[in-house]
């Protein structure tokens, strides 16, 4: 059977089933209509989120009824859940107009905003720099890094101003940020940049209550993953439900101690939490130069 890539793990077991509760919470999920984004939305529905906001209009049109059905089929504390799926305007994440559009959309939400899950990403052909198309190579920086910056500019004000909100921002990084190999320089460099950018967000806004950290979704055969070389696709063995459930579990309560850190969705989450003191004291799960 095919094995996944190394996890660079801090836990002894990979992944345990998680239980989560988002009753009354509002979650924004950015990204295209990919498998992971859908899985996060479905998991949020099962957890009872009152508002699930997605940034892909086509995705939203097909998702609203599904999420409402998912909510009604799952009960928590004897209450029937009826999550609402909505859409932000389909403004490009790299556009300067995203901020104004976001303010208009967020003003319509009576509940404010509790969680941002930024899954937007772009993967360019896995070839060395001189063989690549300059514009396509740079587009990964535009979407992955500039997009993350624009999302933070657009939605952080609402997130931070939501009274009694979870104030949680989760950016999608990648295990690829931790390694190098032939090709893939634009994708891996941007995912490394997201780790550092998220650490800066944590440093700058933790005093206002922000809990910002990054996740590696796992080895999932998404549309992005299928752009990998054929020999690397054999390790894409994780299902979208893995990051879907793990991300919602991470976000269902405040984990400010994870601020600025890297978490893999393949790790055992209860064991990760049990290592909180060790992680914080050792300043672990952050990008550092070893001398």
From TrEMBL:
Which CDD domains does UniProt cross-reference here? SDR_c
Q: Which Pfam families match?
A: adh_short
InterPro entries named among the record's database cross-references: NAD(P)-bd_dom_sf, SDR_fam
Give the record's family classification: Belongs to the short-chain dehydrogenases/reductases (SDR) family.
Q: One MF term from GO for this chain? A: oxidoreductase activity, acting on the CH-OH group of donors, NAD or NADP as acceptor
User: What is the name listed in the Swiss-Prot or TrEMBL entry for this protein?
Assistant: Oxidoreductase
State the organism of origin: Polychaeton citri CBS 116435
Asked if the Swiss-Prot or TrEMBL record annotates the protein with the keyword Oxidoreductase, the reply is yes
Q: Which PANTHER family match?
A: CLAVALDEHYDE DEHYDROGENASE, SHORT-CHAIN DEHYDROGENASES/REDUCTASES FAMILY MEMBER
Q: Does this entry carry the keyword Oxidoreductase?
A: yes
Q: Alphabetically list the UniProt keywords.
A: Oxidoreductase
């Amino acid at each position: 059977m095919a094995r996944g890539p190394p996890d660079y793990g801090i836990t002894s077991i990979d992944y345990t089933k998680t239980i989560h509760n988002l009753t009354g919470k509002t979650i924004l999920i950015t990204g295209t209509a990919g498998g992971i984004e859908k899985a996060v939305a479905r998991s949020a529905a099962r957890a009872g989120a009152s508002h699930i906001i997605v940034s892909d209009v086509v995705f939203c049109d097909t998702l609203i009824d599904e999420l409402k059905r998912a909510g009604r089929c799952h009960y928590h504390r004897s209450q029937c859940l009826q999550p609402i799926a909505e859409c932000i305007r389909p403004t490009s994440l790299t556009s300067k107009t995203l901020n104004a559009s976001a303010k208009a959309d967020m003003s319509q939400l009576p509940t404010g905003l509790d969680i941002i899950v930024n899954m937007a990403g772009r993967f360019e052909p896995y070839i060395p720099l001189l063989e690549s198309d300059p514009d396509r190579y740079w587009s990964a920086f535009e979407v992955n890094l500039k997009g993350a910056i624009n999302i933070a500019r657009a939605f952080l004000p609402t997130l931070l101003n939501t009274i009694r909100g979870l104030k949680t921002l989760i950016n999608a990084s990648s295990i690829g940020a931790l390694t190098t190999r032939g090709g893939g320089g634009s994708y891996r460099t941007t995912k490394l940049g997201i780790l550092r950018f998220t650490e800066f967000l944590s440093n700058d806004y933790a005093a206002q209550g922000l809990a910002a950290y990054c996740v590696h979704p796992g080895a999932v055969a998404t549309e992005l993953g299928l752009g990998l070389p054929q020999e690397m696709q054999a390790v894409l063995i994780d299902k979208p439900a893995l990051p879907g459930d793990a991300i919602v579990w991470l976000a269902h309560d405040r984990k400010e101690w994870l601020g600025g850190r890297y978490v893999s969705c393949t790790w055992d989450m209860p064991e990760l939490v049990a290592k909180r003191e060790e992680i914080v004291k050792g300043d672990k799960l952050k990008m550092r130069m070893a001398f």
